[in-house]
């Protein structure tokens, strides 16, 4: 019976895996083709001659390094702020009993199902009146106000800590912030890792917010690669060079995900043990 279930699982998983991998494989193979080969018909799967120069052109034909630095800088800065603020709020919901806590937490959960696009227009009006559009200040404010999903994540994790640990710290004269900073936060590394990974991935893959709130000089790779960045002297778009740039763009996230895959699963499982 168990073997039959395992075979059925493989029968479903393998075709789905192949289906999801087809676009990625096509992207990588196209990045090694000549432009004429990409436009040729009938379509060829493998490149006739592997064009490694496409990757060189992807870096040299535009200010790739500058926009890469913008993306990394913004992602790291936001990740640090959002992870710490979410952990602090999650600690409050998990370890403090105050009137109205359950109502506030319900509102936090409701924010999880609210699409981000719903708040774009109100946020743009507020930020434009504050004269902080074109800068990284919106990400500072978003990071300081924490993330609803990550608040829930830390709340679930901190709820599993034994009360005796907290009581012992209070007897030793440790403040509430000291208990969070010295005891809870250092022992919350599974939740911290998964929160940091998802925060970093959100900024790295975000297209709408940088397009709306950032200037051209401060924007990220996601925005620049979506435009007609790579063109020939006749302003025809170089698709194969663009594909090479996209591969370079997604490579760090893909490598980071596979390297931290065990930690991600461990964090999800650990933070979901108890309510």
Features:
globular; MetI-like fold; 275 residues; mainly alpha; 71% helix; 15 helices
Mind explaining what this structure looks like?
- It is globular and about 75 Å long.
- The chain has one domain: MetI-like fold, CATH 1.10.3720.
- It is built from 15 helices and no strands.
- With 275 residues, the protein is mainly α.
How many DSSP helices?
Answer: 15
Task: Give the % helix.
Answer: over 70%
Output the CATH class name: Mainly Alpha
Domains, number: 1
Mean pLDDT equals 86
Write down how many β-strands occur, each being a DSSP E stretch of 2 or more residues. Answer: 0
In whole angstroms, the N-to-C terminal distance is 33 Å
Could you list the spans in which at least 5 consecutive residues all have pLDDT below 50? none
The CATH homologous superfamily: MetI-like
Can you name the CATH architecture? Answer: Orthogonal Bundle
SSE layout and pairing:
Elements: H1 2-30, H2 35-39, H3 53-60, H4 64-95, H5 101-112, H6 120-129, H7 137-144, H8 148-158, H9 163-171, H10 176-184, H11 189-205, H12 208-213, H13 221-226, H14 239-259, H15 261-271
Question: What's this entry about, in short?
Answer:
By secondary structure, this protein is mostly helical. The protein is 71% helix and 0% strand.
């Amino acid at each position: 019976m168990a073997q039959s279930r395992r075979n059925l699982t493989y029968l479903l998983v393998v075709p789905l895996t192949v289906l999801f991998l087809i676009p990625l494989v096509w992207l990588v193979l196209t990045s090694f083709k000549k432009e004429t080969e990409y436009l040729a018909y009938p379509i060829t799967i493998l490149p006739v001659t592997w064009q490694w120069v496409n990757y060189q052109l992807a870096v040299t034909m535009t200010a790739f390094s500058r926009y890469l630095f913008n993306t990394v800088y913004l992602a790291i800065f936001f990740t640090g702020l959002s992870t710490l603020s979410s952990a602090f709020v999650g600690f409050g919901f998990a370890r403090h009993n105050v009137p109205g806590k359950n109502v506030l937490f319900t509102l936090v959960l409701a924010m999880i199902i609210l699409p981000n696009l719903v708040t774009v227009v109100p946020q743009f009006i507020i930020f434009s009146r504050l004269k902080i559009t074109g800068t990284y200040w919106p990400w500072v404010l978003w990071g300081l106000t924490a993330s609803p999903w990550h608040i829930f994540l830390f709340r679930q994790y901190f709820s599993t800590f034994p009360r005796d640990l907290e009581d012992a710290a209070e007897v030793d004269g440790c403040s509430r912030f000291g208990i969070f900073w010295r005891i809870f936060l250092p022992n919350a590394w599974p939740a911290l890792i998964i929160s940091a990974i998802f925060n970093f991935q959100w900024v790295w893959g975000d297209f709408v917010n940088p397009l709306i709130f950032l200037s051209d000089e401060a924007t990220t790779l996601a925005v620049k690669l979506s435009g007609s960045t790579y063109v020939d002297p006749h302003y025809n778009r170089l698709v194969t060079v663009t594909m090479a740039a996209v591969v370079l763009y997604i490579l760090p996230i893909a490598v980071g995900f596979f390297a931290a895959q065990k930690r991600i699963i461990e964090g999800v499982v650990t933070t979901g043990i108890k309510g």
